[in-house]
Amino acid sequence: MPDGCACDRHSHMYLTVSEALARGLSAADPIRDIETLPLIDAIGRVLAEDCISKVAMPAFDNSAMDGYAVRMVDLGEGPAFELPVAGRIAAGDSGAHDAPAGSALRIFTGAPVPTDFDAVLMQEDCETTDVGIRFARRPRPGQHIRRAGEDLKAGSPVLRRGCEIKAREAAALASAGYGEVQVYRKLKVALFSTGSELRQPGEDLAPGQIYNSNRFMLRALLDKRWISLTDMGPIRDDPDVLEQALRDACDSADLIITTGGVSVGDEDHMPRLFAQIGGQTDVMKVAMKPGKPIMFGRRGDALYIGLPGNPVSAFVTWQIIGAHMMARRAGLHHAPQTPEQAVLAEPLTRPAGRQEYRPVVIEGLTPDGVPKLRLMAAAYSGRVALLAQADGLAVIPAETETLPQGHAVPFLRF
Ligand code: AMP
Ligand code: MG
Question: Structurally, how many domains does the chain consist of?
Fold first, then answer.
């Protein structure tokens, strides 16, 4: 994507997507307040400290197999080897033993390997005798022993601050000995959908009314352990009511997300109202399709993201811009999804001017295993049903007008 601005056919200046994202991110100051939580309660939260391991991982030499521990010095010339078995060590045992020289120990996975023992034989490679074991192949020194600190030395970095504590992170923190960790406090998010036409699903629709899909879409997108959400519901296009809602949201939340009312129609009040309550608007026009009308701004510490009302536009602008702003605001060190490489299953023709995120369906794979993308309808900004059937978005550069069948395109998989 070239830097600077792209122009649409009315020759208004628009920000490129990458420029709008950069501006959005710079407006999204990370929260700094930290709390200490037991690890179990920190799952799903954002880590606020760099963590080093409190112990070596693993903490002691231990067996990687069920089998027998031996001392290399006890092994003769071969070809076959025979040793009595003089003891047994299981996971959780201390590793103390009184096996005399010339004997083996029965050992199990995870059990400490005593320091004078230096190889483990898999039980599958041993034959049991009346007094012990017989085996045909000389082990390699150190074989099947997991050495203390081989995963991580004590004091080495385990995780850096800014990560979301998901399954892998929780496991690493537990292994590193963290009973409690520091996390950022939850991000306070306020959400409302604007539009006098909106009804709740389940209610009857009067003429001119539609179901509020954005509310449910955003509830799903905001369903995170690191968010404390205030859902203010739908709000009708009444400037006084909207202004009060915006004011309340800005007074109490770190991040305010609304849908609708950011375009240029008479009922599109949000930019004006946000300015009226003392907000500073940063971006209004982004050369992207779908989703040209998106706004964000600041009022004090509150960050405001006004998404378009059309559901597909709201979804795409959220994915491409809003979600990254929110992640940064919450303290996450987070990189936007890297697109995969895919190819077009059919030629593409479209007007140049805006970077497009076109819903696509994977139609199959090339012989090299690259997804072949079938383009969905070109006019789709309101089509939530179509969006639900898509496998992802093809990214089409602003200046592109035509692409032949088989052409490579970046693909953002859902
Ligand atoms: P707006 O951006 O307010 O002009 O809305 C653009 C289009 O999106 C209109 O057709 C609205 O009816 C529709 N729309 C706005 N908000 C929602 C919503 N929450 N759920 C579904 N459709 C919406
Ligand atoms: Mg509206």
Answer: 4
Cα 222 to ligand 2 centroid, rounded to whole Å: 22
> What average pLDDT does the segment 256-265 reach?
92
Model confidence pLDDT, tens digit, residues 375-402: 998 888 889 999 999 999 999 999 999 9
Report the candidate in 359, 376, 265 with the shortest Cα–Cα distance to residue 312: 359
Q: Which residues line ligand 1 (CB under 6 A)?
A: 193, 195, 197-198, 210, 212-215, 259-261, 263, 265, 268, 308-311, 382
68 domain-assigned: yes
Mean pLDDT calculated for residue range 113-132: 96
What is the pLDDT of the chain when averaged over all its residues? 94
Bigger pLDDT: 207 or 291? 207
Mean pLDDT confidence for 247-275: 94
Report d(CA 166, CA 115) in Å as an integer.
36
Q: Is the dihedral of CA 68, 69, 74, 76 positive or negative?
A: positive
For residue 108, pLDDT over 70 is answered with yes
Q: Are residues 220 and 193 in the same domain?
A: yes
In a domain, 397, yes or no: yes
Cα–Cα distance between 134 and 79 in angstroms, integer?
Answer: 11
The range of the structural domain enclosing residue 401 comes to 340-413
Answer yes or no: do 161 and 110 share one domain. Answer: no
Residues 142-166: what's their mean pLDDT? 96
The percent of residues in the chain predicted with pLDDT above 90, rounded, is 89
As beta bridge partners, residue 409 has 342
Torsion angle of C-alpha atoms 395, 340, 161, 330, degrees rounded to 10: 30
* Prediction pTM value: 0.89
How far, in Å, CA of 181 to CA of 173, rounded?
Answer: 9
Best residue among 259, 292, 305 to mutate for probing ligand 1, ranked by most atoms within 8 Å of CB: 259
310: CATH = 3.40.980.10
Q: Within this chain, do residues 69 and 110 fall inside the same structural domain, yes or no? A: yes
Please give the average per-residue pLDDT across 148-160, as a whole number. Answer: 94
